[in-house]
Amino acid sequence: MSSALTPALVAVFAGCAFAVVAFVPFVALSYRRRGEMTFWRSILWFAALIYAMALWAYTLLPFPEGRDVTCVPLQTVPFMFVNDVARFGVGSVGALVQNPAAVQVALNVVLFMPLGWFLRRLGGRGIVVATVSGFVVSMLIEVTQVTGIWGLYSCAYRVFDVDDLIANTAGALIGSIIGMLLWRRSRQNPDAGAPRPITAMRRLLGMLCDVALFWIASWIVVAISLVIALLDGRPQLGIPPAVFDTAAFVLPFTVQLLSVLIGGVTLGERIVLIRAVHRVTPAAIARPLRFVLGIGGYMLLVTWEAGLGSLLLGLLVVVSFIMAFTTRGHRGLAHAAATMDVVDARAEPLHGHAASDRRAGAR
Question: Would the keyword Transmembrane be found if you checked this record's keyword annotation (predicted)?
Answer without folding.
Answer: yes
